[in-house]
């Protein structure tokens, strides 16, 4: 009789301690803590690829430039502010290490780190 009680208790402990693979609570993760994002969600985002059009700023036209390209139009982007340059490494003022990939990048230069310096008029 004593063995049956012990076996029943051991069986009950194993029964409640071994849960089947449960899904993670999707409310408990945050993009601020990337390791908390479930693997399935990270994998699905990776499989989508880059969703930003013209992410490397390669597609665009410049209207005029002397030393810096400040009058330009980029495909898929709207330029806001006066302190934005389209880096073009073929010009002598820019270096090849100014861009991470390709020949273009965006350079934003402000004299002060204040939102009041930002002007929405191009």
Q: Care to describe what's here?
A:
- The chain is an alpha+beta fold.
- Helices cover 21% and strands 16% of the residues.
- The chain has a domain at 60-111.
- The strands form two sheets. Strands 1-2 form a two-stranded antiparallel ribbon.
- The mean pLDDT is 78.
Brief overview, please?
The protein has 122 residues and is α+β, with helices and mostly antiparallel strands. Helices cover 21% and strands 16% of the residues.
Distance between the first and last residues' Cα? 88 Å
Number of helices, counting only DSSP H or I runs of 4 residues or more: 2
Strand content: 15-25%
Helix content bin: 10-25%
Strands of the widest sheet, in order across it, are 1-2
Arithmetic mean of pLDDT: 78
What best-fitting shape do the alpha-carbon axes yield?
Answer: rod-shaped
Low-confidence stretches: none
Backbone structural class: alpha+beta
Largest sheet: 2 strands, antiparallel
Based on CA atoms alone, the radius of gyration comes out at 28 Å
N-to-C series of helices and strands: HHEEEE
Number of E-type strands:
4
Multimer state: single chain
Descriptive labels:
alpha+beta; two-stranded antiparallel sheet; 122 residues; rod-shaped; two-stranded antiparallel ribbon; 2 helices; single chain
